[in-house]
Amino acid sequence: MGLTYLHTMVRVKDLETSIAFYELLGLKKTRQYDNEKGRFTLVFMAPPGQEECPVELTYNWDGDDALPSDSRHFGHLAYRVDNIYETCQHLMDNGVTINRPPRDGHMAFVRSPDNISVELLQAGDALPAAEPWASMENTGHW
Q: Are residues 3 and 47 in the same domain?
């Protein structure tokens, strides 16, 4: 029996805001499918060169009031980054809250505009502890 990973789907309330968030992480739109009859849009986004590992953003045109206010039941998305400090600084500079700062030089968590928890992991060994990250407190939950 063969098994092939296809994608992870998350529902979003504001498609453009969500696309912008995932672009800040470095993902690129690989394809989009608009379904007039079903009144929804699917946008697939993946890291460059890893189009086979997308996240699917599902947007319902008529709104999605059923989306929970806390998506922790989902778990999280995880991405390896080349430099966790630079990545977190880039996100902060663009208005993203770092919920769990990379105090250990290895792991951080942020949340998407739709409250999806996103784990960022340093590629290779952890970076040496550095400020402001080493003394930064958690914000909210992740």
A: yes
